[in-house]
Here is the input.
Amino acid sequence: MACTTILVGKKATYDGSTMIARNDDSGAGHFTPKKFVVIHPQEQKKVYKTVLSHLEITLPDEPMRYTAMPNAVEGKGIWAASGVNEAQVAMTATETLTSNPRVLGADPLVEYQPAEDGREEIPGGIGEEDIVYLVLPYIHSAREGVIRLGSLLEQYGTYEMNGIAFQDADEIWWLETIGGHHWIARRVPDDVYVVMPNQLGLDRFDLEDALHGQKEYMCSPDMREFIEKNHLDLSMDGKLNPRDAFGSHDDADHVYNTPRAWFIERCLNPHTKVWDGPNADYRPESDDIPWCMVPEKKITVEDVKYALSTHYQGTPYDPYGSYGDNSLRGTYRPVGINRNDFVAVIQMRPDKKTHNAPVEWIAYGSNVFNALVPFYADVEDTPEYLSNTTGEVSTDNFYWSSRLIAAMADASYRSSIFHIERYQEHVMSKGHELIARYDELLEKEPEEEKRMALRMEANREIAKMLKKETQAILNLVLFELSSRMKNAFARSDA
Here is the structure.
């Protein structure tokens, strides 16, 4: 799916946690309702069949419990999207990537071929629909996640280009698929953040380490031969640049992809580089915007939420802007778009006991107008307000309430945005407050069974607060939009 991913190493965050975050966006022309659930071992199938590619895969024994953000409407597969397992390992999948004809010709995507004209059905490979379900329940570290997914790609192949993040308390790894069966991965340095906008992103790669030491890099075992045989290395100095070798630099990228990386890095490193004007180091259309940067200050959850909600504020490209050249508004695809389905920011906190460490911050709907709220991730169930999404519009759940708020606030932007800003700040503040309160109780409780009960109690209290605040903002934006109806009339009876 169209998405934007941000990864933050533990030395770049305000509290020493690792953070992986991703907007999950629907494709143009539709919206995908999502829900926040826990998948238990007994619910994990022994033989998994993909819906889109008709591939059957036998899964390992003894899966772990894990949180997930699957589709709320059945029919197109699970699309588990993002979650944390019992071993406190997280992943988010996937970020759809671009490639080029040289790569796709050398290792074609493994596409489903239906039975026709006397030919038997030929299953396709794995894809975004499947990857979290196939990997997350079986891994005990971020590195293990890379190894397991890499082996699945080599065995079954994939029908699409994707990027996947794996996270534990110490490391974040980023994997990118290359063609149908190949892949590369890099450990995110501890002192940087990464921005990924639907475009193959890695801009440096140590092939020697990936094939032998595997300290900071990993890849398919035949990657060197694959590159050499197909003349994929475009470097003049012999230093492999994966973005040049495996990625794309199309005109469409300069409207859809690179501007998102430009604006987020402009937000997090405003003084490190020149981002605007004729002498800018990087512009929205630049193909060489860095994959990772050391931030100018330590990054907070609020920073990540802001970055994943941006719509080019303060530039001529802001679709909500009221100044500058009108013809430039909406030129580039925003990060915070109408088709955001959810955002998940997974935070592995190093100063908490193991089972209390992972917190999953969640919001639904368009990020410009939604509120991010934290939940303990090592739990046996999730609050109904987050998990009861269906295909029917209802204010009884967070997903549809968020969608309604966004549509009405967008239509009444000038009068509603200050309500939205207060709502977002209040929900995050109360979220921090409730997590801090329950962290203290959890630290004092010696029995894990009681700590589990406390984490689930905390999540229910957070959901209760969230529902109250969301209902209040729904009322406010409905009033603002109703007051601007075309059939409004100033005079009343009294």
